Amino acid sequence: MGQREQDGGTSAHRLVLALPSLMIIGGLVFDLLTPSEFTASPLFAAAPLIAAPFFSWLATLLTGMAAVAGVVGLHIYNGTLSQTSANTELFTVITVAGLALFINRVVRLSGQRLASARVIAENAQRAVLPTPLDRIGGLRIAARYEAAQKDALVGGDLFAVQDTPHGVRLVVGDVRGKGMEAVEAVAVVIGAFREAAEQERSLEGVAARLERALTREGTRRDSLDVFEGFTTAVLAEVPRGAAGVRVVNRGHPEPLVLYPDGDVDRLRPTEHALPLGMGDLGSLPDLADEYPFPAGATLLLYTDGLSEARNADDVFYDPGERLGGRHFPGPEELLDALLDDVRRYTGGGTNDDMALLAVGRPANGRPERGGTVPVVKEEREESGRDRV
């Protein structure tokens, strides 16, 4: 969210808080400046109704009492308190004030339920998609989950890291669809991955286990369309003592390797494979490709929420191009800078959830933290050139 949007939201909030008082003051002024046949009772009645969803119960009560006092005071001043119309106006304002107190109570109870539901959702997120440790198997790890919908916590994107006898294994994926079905599929994929990562000798075997798990889930759930319930995923394995990484890509955006000198490699698969859950449509076996992953390099895996983010000209965000020539002290700094750059590029956010996983291999003989090293190069002035 930009500074202008924040300022606009703050101003609107202040106006809402001041509106009940302005309604009462406006009612007094209107009644005093107009003939007696005109009434300001709608303004007095509006004040507690406006206060109800935003103020506390006590503040709403005080607003209602102030509105009633304003009506009574004006009729005493005008000498019309004994008239039938005055009693009708007074009864109307009192009734609306009582209704405002009821609305306030309902809103407060709903807010408490919403807060409780949010706590439950946060716990569910931690259970389904736990944040990995920052050091696993000698590698530095950083992960982020950015939901496109405000206040959403978890959706169909996933990541997981597992230290196994075969090396550190990782998965980043994107379940097709939204809602609870997508979250259930995420739980199935991550659960199957953690079990298979420990037991399978090869990365191809892990991919095959995930395929079977999603097929079983699709069979169990009659509502899940076999042609729609798929998951794009990329699995990676960093063997111990090796300066490389093995990757199986199942229809997912290509990972990147960022080298210490600023170069960026796209890890393009030798053969393009179908997403997980679509094995019935193709019989080609998985093939793990091997790529260099030297000391000081960082492996970046991400979902299409990143690569399909668009700017005002409807141009897709290209992480390989945007990250080329940049230098980062570590995975955490890389993801922080990347998210900031995406927000600048799109003008605030993306239209899809985004999962990011960065894995850094510490450089030999160098300090792990470079706090004084700039995270990114300074951005050039906007003059038609690409921003770095």
List the strand order in the largest sheet: 1-2-11-10-7-8
Overall geometry comes to elongated
- Report the C-alpha radius of gyration, rounded: 30 Å
Helix content bin: 40-55%
How would you describe this protein?
The protein is an alpha+beta fold. Helices cover 45% and strands 16% of the residues. It contains nine helices and eleven strands. The strands form two sheets. It has a six-stranded antiparallel β-sheet. Strands 3-4-5-6-9 form a five-stranded antiparallel β-sheet, with helices on one face. A hairpin with a 2-residue loop joins strand 3 and strand 4. Helix 1 runs antiparallel to helix 2 and helix 1 runs parallel beside helix 3. The longest helix has 45 residues. It is elongated and about 95 Å long.
